[in-house]
Amino acid sequence: MSEETRRDNEAPGEAPLDNPPNNLIDRRLQPQRDWAPLPGLLAIGLYLLVLAGVIILGVAGRHYPAIFLLLAAAFLTASAGLILLLRWAWAGALAAVFLLACYNLWIFGAQHVAPALVQGLLNLVFFLYLVRAEVREKLR
């Protein structure tokens, strides 16, 4: 069937079958924003959750002062929000991993403790992951 006969057979005001409206094309080509978090965000959220647990146990065992419970609460909040893909939690997690990286690298520089270096570099990797543009786009 030629293009002219196809146009003649269509009702007035009706879009051709081969050319769907632009809004249908746009919707099909746009990536779907699903709820599932990126694996890295999930890992960072679980990491912050574990750190909060370690702090709580340290305060209960009288290894840390009670004021550290504020850090644990902040880590728990950032962890839950990051797993739920909330933008404000991204900012909290970004600040947490950056400050933890600085602290651990400072501890390594002052006391030459190898676990502090490992944790500092891990926090630095998490920070570099969080600042990527595609991670920020995933958050709501």
Summarize the structure.
The chain has 140 residues and is mostly helical. 72% of the residues lie in helices and 0% in strands.
Folded structure, characterized:
This protein is mostly helical. The longest helix is centred in the last third of the chain and has 25 residues. It is 72% helix and 0% strand.
Topology:
Blueprint: H1 3-9, H2 22-29, H3 39-60, H4 68-83, H5 87-111, H6 114-130, H7 133-138
Helix pairs in contact: 3-4, 4-5, 5-6
Descriptive tags:
elongated; mainly alpha; 7 helices; 140 residues; single chain
User: What is the mean predicted local confidence, pLDDT?
Assistant: 83
Q: Provide the β-strand percentage band.
A: under 5%
Structural class: mainly alpha
User: Spans of 5+ residues with little confidence (pLDDT < 50)?
Assistant: none
How far do the termini sit from each other?
48 Å
Number of domains: 1
Q: Give the radius of gyration.
A: 25 Å
Spell out the helices and strands N to C. Answer: HHHHHHH
